[in-house]
Amino acid sequence: IINLAAPGADTDASTKKYVDDSIASVSTTSIAQLNTNVAVTDTGSNGTITVTADGNTELTINDTTAAFSGNVTVAGTTDLSGATTITANTTGDALLITTTEASSTAAPVITLKRNSSSPADADYLGQIKFKGENDADQEIVYAKITGKMLDASDGTEDGIIEIAHKKAGSN
């Protein structure tokens, strides 16, 4: 962004020279706010763009990833495709869903929807797994809650919740 203050002499030639000189000093890889506390930079490495504020990298974007530092607030609907991972280094909430709606209706609501083109009896619909590592550093599913469609027939649908846990090394 260029600060185009009026040149000292009011002529086309001096205005052109001022603009040319200003453009010549502009980086082709970075956009900075006038106080230089915020910058957007093309690092030249695999199309990576970084956004920094007060010297801290807050956002890094490349062809496959957008990585945020600090808190991220999203207003409205967000659609994510592909696997999503949330990693926390605290014993507090890794995911907190809050509703401020004041009626007696159930909320917040988490929906697991299987949208199959060929639903059939005994299809699994969704699962919550409780994983941990054993003393050999192996990832183990210690318990799980599974939703299952018992009967997919229109008008006579039946569903079931299965709860399973590991005991003595077996499911």
Features:
171 residues, mainly beta, five-stranded antiparallel sheet, three-stranded antiparallel sheet, 1 helix
Structural class: mainly beta
Tell me the strand order in the biggest sheet. Answer: 1-2-3-4-5
**In angstroms, what is the radius of gyration?**
28 Å
Number of helices: 1
Q: Could you describe the largest sheet, including whether it forms a barrel?
A: 5 strands, antiparallel
Average residue pLDDT: 81
What is the end-to-end distance? 62 Å
Note the overall shape.
elongated
Number of strands: 8
**N-to-C order of helices and strands:** HEEEEEEEE
What share of residues are in beta strands? 25-35%
Level of helix content?
Answer: under 10%
Which runs of at least 5 residues are low in confidence (pLDDT < 50)? none
Question: What does this molecule look like?
Answer:
The chain is mainly beta. Helices cover about 10% and strands about 30% of the residues. The chain contains one helix and eight strands; from the N terminus they run αββββββββ. A five-stranded antiparallel β-sheet has the order 1-2-3-4-5, with no helix packed on it. The protein has a three-stranded antiparallel β-sheet with strand order 6-7-8, with no helix packed on it. A hairpin with a 5-residue loop joins strand 1 and strand 2. The protein is elongated, with a radius of gyration of 28 Å. The termini are far apart. The mean pLDDT is about 80.
